[in-house]
Write a structure and sequence with these properties.
The complex is a heterodimer of chains A (283) and B (418). By secondary structure, chain A is an alpha/beta fold. Helices cover 31% and strands 26% of the residues of chain A. Chain A is built from 7 helices and 12 strands. A 6-stranded mixed β-sheet of chain A has the order 6-9-10-3-11-12, sandwiched between helices. Chain A has a 4-stranded antiparallel β-sheet with strand order 2-1-4-5, covered by helices on one side. A two-stranded antiparallel ribbon of chain A has the order 7-8. The chains are: A alpha/beta (283), B alpha/beta (418). The complex binds adenosine-5'-diphosphate (ADP) and magnesium ion (MG).
Chain lengths: 283, 418
């Protein structure tokens, strides 16, 4: 079975600091995995590494997607996206001056319309557009925005520029819905959302979910898992997955906190946790 | 040098050459040229000690080329109805022949700031081309006027002068575009005088697409009358060296102006802008916004002075200069200077930055399937948008975006191969 994202004994560092210390995890297409862990345990570093962030150096281990080696130099972030990977950022970047509509159309075409080798017009005239027809794209965008209960006016705003936390997370989900990836990594998409936004985002995820898509849902809190049901839950501490189980694990974690996990696996309290904090988020 | 394009006899720039230019011209123009040439002789080059000239040395200016005495003429199209209302839109030499009184009463009447004095004087003495636009009182010209000139190849000197006069309450939008082939050591002057009368509205865009060996040493003087409304845009895309002096005079009470700039430079290009926003009248507003994207080893310098005179009460002024460095060897040096001579102002400020693209922003765009180049182009496109969005004429916007396309691609064409 190669229809999966397979991470084996992954060791990653940034500068001289080791962050992932031998992490293994397999997510099959069609499965939803939750990855939980305290702040600083390395969740975002894992997500960035999977997407090919150049600053994260892989020292050991392997990552393959559908049998293809993702650690190959040729697999730049754009190639990974074209291979079906998607990362919803914990802190999405703003791109001032580029409207949401223009951005979405650009990335849609980048994924779904392989480039044609258009002859460069010698007279300096604009080359011909070969992407998705505008009207068709509009329709797709409006449909997906409605699904996520987004204000249509967002399409004319600049990407994440002056967006609230909730607006940014919805836009991440809109991009996912439009790109229709086969493996989505959602990095704390639930953080900082009020209950309505959380519900809208969760509905968006559920509407995009399909048996053709795998999900690695990184989260700090159990809350979102009430809406998006994972088949597998993993707990990450200090750059490793230290515990795995079914959905019930998220409830145990919610009730007992990460120190309970540390006790279970024989780590001293506070290890792998930058700021000790309760698991439940208060909104 | 192509002999056919340039006058057969090399015309080096001296008093004889200026006199020869004037041979068939009316006496008033002969006098005008020679009086400006005397200024050149008295003070031929800017002092490199002047703050405005410390960053661009003229030692390597290709000054031995012949004067381009028979420049290609842009096509000047103006509606016959407008012509009947008195709008004149033609090249300066034709205007001298067809509307001598009009030209005589406006051409070469005004001084510019001292650091630009010799540049200004030289083109007023030795101009052989340029645009003349006159819009009478209360006449509104819909749609943009365009003067596009494609210069020939050659190591010549060309010092055109453009004169735009808007009488009170007139309205017009003009694009001047200049291009030349790569590889020639052309000395291109390019001065412009924009006189905007009370209550008039001018939108002026200048698109510079000179070849990669050209030196552009230009100056623009803009006078904004009472309650007039002016936006100028200088888009600098080509040339090896581009030096532009902006002399803006907010002389009439209540006038408003914006000086916009877009720079896209690579290779070893050097672009040096010095602006002087001189607030003379009360209740005036003057904003400057220059955006530059610098690639390879390109450098840009901005020495901008805002001068708020004692009578310029209740004024608002700002200069903003943002530089995106797309290569570790590119550089930008913004130097704002504020000289405020009254306490009674609303605002006078500046903002300047120079920095690379945020790597996370680049990674974000790339993680969505855009190649590193596409991601960069999109980010730069967005960066330019603050100025591009202010071009309200679609045909002018299209010309400018076309000139920038080799750097930033086309926003509309995201399905296309690079
Ligand atoms: N760019 C970076 N430079 C240096 N240290 C980093 C960088 N990114 C993350 N780290 C460190 O790596 C560890 C894991 O961080 P991160 O992956 O963001 O954890 P999480 O997402 O679980 O909160 C933390 O100690 C953090 O300080
Ligand atoms: Mg994180």
């Amino acid at each position: 079975m190669t229809d999966q994202l397979e991470i084996r004994d992954l060791e990653v560092s940034i500068g001289s600091k080791q962050i992932l210390k031998g992490l293994s995890l397999t997510v099959k297409v069609g499965e939803v995995h939750a990855l939980m862990g305290p702040n600083g345990s390395g969740k975002t570093s894992l997500a960035y590494t999977l997407m090919g962030h150049p600053d994260y150096r892989v020292d050991a281990g392997s990552v393959s997607w559908r049998g293809e080696d993702l650690l190959n130099k040729k697999m730049t972030p754009d190639r990974r996206a074209q291979a079906g990977l998607f990362l919803a950022f914990q802190y999405p970047s703003a791109i001032p001056g580029v409207t949401v509509a223009s951005f979405l159309r650009n990335i849609y075409n980048a994924i779904h319309h392989p480039k044609v080798a258009a002859a460069v017009a010698s007279d300096g005239a604009m080359p011909k557009y070969t992407g998705i027809p505008l009207a068709k794209f509009r329709k797709l965008m409006e449909e997906k925005m409605a699904l996520l209960q987004m204000d249509p006016a967002v399409a004319a705003r600049y990407v994440n520029d002056g967006f609230s936390g909730g607006e940014k997370k919805r836009l991440e989900m809109l991009q996912m819905a439009i790109l229709n990836p086969t493996m989505a990594i959602l990095d704390e998409t639930d953080s900082g959302l009020d209950i309505d936004a959380l519900r809208a985002v969760a509905e968006g995820i559920n509407a995009t979910l399909s048996p053709e898509m795998g999900v690695l849902m990184i989260t700090h809190y159990q809350r979102i898992l009430n809406y998006v049901k994972p088949q597998f839950v993993h707990v990450m501490l200090d750059g490793r997955i230290v515990m795995s189980g079914g959905e019930e694990l998220s409830h145990q974690l919610e009730a007992n906190g990460y120190d309970w996990v540390r006790e279970q696996v024989g780590l001293p309290a506070g290890i792998g946790d930058e700021v000790s904090e309760p698991v439940a988020e208060h909104v | 040098m192509t002999a056919s394009a340039v006058s057969a006899l090399p015309e080096s720039l001296d008093s004889n050459a200026v006199a020869r230019l004037s041979r068939d011209e009316p006496a008033w123009l002969r006098t005008l040229r020679s009086s400006w040439w005397r200024r050149v002789e008295a003070d031929p080059w800017p002092s490199s000690a002047a703050e405005e000239w410390r960053r661009t040395k003229l030692d390597d200016l290709p000054r031995d080329g012949a004067l381009l005495t028979d420049p290609p003429r842009a096509t000047y199209e103006v509606d016959s109805a407008l012509a009947e209302q008195g709008v004149v839109f033609t090249d300066l030499a034709s205007a001298v022949r067809e509307h001598p009184d009009l030209v005589q009463s406006h051409l070469g009447r005004r001084e510019t700031i001292i650091p630009q004095g010799s540049i200004w004087a030289r083109s007023l003495a030795a101009w052989t081309g340029g645009t003349f636009l006159y819009v009478p009182r209360g006449v509104e010209v819909d749609g943009p006027l365009m003067a596009r000139t494609e210069l020939p190849a050659g190591d010549y000197t060309y010092l055109p002068h453009t004169l735009v006069v808007l009488e009170p309450e007139a309205r017009v939008t003009l694009l001047e575009e200049i291009s030349s082939p790569d590889g020639a050591s052309t000395w291109f002057g390019g001065t412009a005088e924009l006189v905007v009368g009370p209550g008039a509205r001018l939108r002026y865009a200048n698109l510079q697409r000179l070849g990669d060996g050209a030196w552009r040493i230009g100056a623009q003087r803009t006078e904004v009358g009472q309650d007039a409304d002016v936006i100028t845009l200088n888009a600098e895309v080509g040339s090896l060296v581009s030096k532009m002096g902006l002399d803006l005079r907010m002389s009439g009470k209540g006038g408003t102006s914006k000086l916009l700039g877009l720079l896209a430079a690579g290779g070893k290009q050097m672009i040096d802008i010095n602006s002087c926003q001189d607030l003379l009248g009360s209740h005036t507003t003057s904003d400057l916004l220059y955006l530059s994207a610098l690639y390879d080893e390109a450098h840009a310098a901005f020495y901008g002075v805002t001068r708020v005179r004692p009578d310029a009460k209740q004024t608002s002024s700002y200069q903003e200069c943002r530089n995106l460095l797309l290569s570790p060897k590119a550089g930008a040096e913004p130097i704002p200077v504020l000289e405020i001579e009254t306490n009674d102002i609303l605002r006078c400020g500046h903002g300047a930055t120079a920095g690379a693209i945020d790597p996370v922003q680049r990674f974000y765009a790339q993680s969505r399937g855009l190649s590193a180049d596409e991601a960069e182009q999109m980010i730069v496109r967005g960066f330019f948008e603050r100025v591009v969005a202010q071009i309200d004429s679609e045909p002018i916007k299209a010309r400018i975006l076309d000139a920038l396309a080799s750097r930033i691609g086309y926003a509309e064409l995201d399905g296309i191969a690079a």
